[in-house]
Design a protein that fits this description.
Elements lengths: L5 E6 L3 H9 L2 H9 L5 H21 L5 E6 L12 E7 L1 H8 L6 E6 L17 H4 L8 E11 L4 E4 L2 E5 L6 E7 L6 E6 L2 E4 L7 H8 L14 E5 L14 E4 L5 E5 L3 E6 L7 E4 L3 E14 L1
Parallel strand pairs: 1-2, 1-3, 3-4, 4-16
Antiparallel strand pairs: 5-6, 5-16, 7-10, 7-14, 8-9, 8-13, 10-11, 11-12, 13-16, 14-15
Helix pairs in contact: 1-2
Length: 297
């Protein structure tokens, strides 16, 4: 007998919950905020809206289906199954956080705070869940391009918005950068790191760099198998160059970064706690991922 579908509800602790956990009580949290000119009432109201949204989504799940919940902080320890339907209740960034752990499962984004969130990835309201969930596996989905980094020791990292390669702190990253088709030629660089982003990421970090560079390269669409990459603050010196600082990667193309520092990291979508650890001499290849995020439209 095949298993019934399982709905995995992904959420994160609200600001109110984090404040109360840190300060011990509602009253102490309220006093702390008031001493800094803020009112806890607004934060508490957003918390209650999130809780109501979670309750409404939970009640919309068909009775014959299984269900579970997972917090953002536990995603790296949670095992998604092929028959899962994932419902992200929260902000756009939470969809990006969960995307790297999936392998084709449909994702339904529920916006808990319309007007504060752009709604690029959390496109629906809690009341829509009842109608959308039964067709999650058979209805139309948007396949959003993802980016991947693969190290020579088989470490692999997926991201929906962008992947950053560089030093863990504010130190200079030293590496050798090359591209497919350059006959193996690579340039030694010292910089603040390399950023490789998708069309979805073109609404965030990668866009800010793109704007600073004058917008000379066309931004990719969310479902377009094309990436943009930028070297941040490349430093020219007798030993390091700045001729390769921006470009685009088609579906089969790869950017090669060989580490020439004691330690560099690669992380995706701002989740530095879940990063690849790279050391001297290692090479990582970055390009369009073979899997996409299947977002329920």
């Amino acid at each position: 007998m095949s298993l019934a579908p399982r709905v995995v509800i992904v959420h994160r602790r609200t600001e109110y919950e984090e404040l109360v956990a840190h300060h011990g009580t509602h009253g102490q949290a309220a006093f702390f905020l008031s001493s800094r000119g803020r009112d806890i009432a607004e934060i508490a109201e957003r918390h209650h809206r999130t809780r109501r949204a979670l309750a409404e989504v939970t009640s919309a799940i068909p009775l014959t289906w299984r269900q579970t919940r997972v917090e953002r902080a536990d995603l790296d320890r949670f095992l998604f199954a092929p028959e899962d339907a994932v419902v992200v209740v929260g902000q756009d960034g939470l969809v990006a956080n969960v995307a790297k752990y999936l392998a084709g499962q449909p994702v339904l984004g529920i916006d808990t705070d319309p007007g504060r969130n752009p709604g690029v990835l959390v496109r629906h309201r809690p009341a829509d869940a009842a109608a959308l969930l039964p067709s999650a596996f058979t209805g139309a989905v948007d396949e959003l391009t993802m980016v991947e980094a693969v190290a020579d020791d088989t470490q692999r990292l997926l991201a929906l918005n962008e992947i950053y390669l560089g030093a863990a702190g504010h130190q200079t990253a030293r590496y050798r950068l090359g591209l497919d088709g350059h006959r193996g030629a690579a340039e030694a660089q010292a910089s603040s790191g390399v950023l490789v982003g998708t069309g979805t990421g073109a609404t965030g970090w990668i866009r800010s760099v793109w704007q600073e560079r004058g917008g000379g390269l066309p931004l990719p669409g969310r479902d377009e198998a094309r990436l943009l990459w930028f070297v941040r603050e490349a430093w020219p010196s007798p030993a390091t160059g700045t001729s390769l600082v921006a470009g685009q990667l088609a579906a089969a193309a790869r950017l090669h970064v060989t580490v020439e520092s004691e330690r560099l990291i690669a992380f995706g979508d701002g989740m530095e706690a879940d990063a690849l650890e790279l050391t001297w001499g290692q090479t990582v290849r970055v390009g369009v991922a073979g899997t996409a995020l299947r977002l329920v439209g």
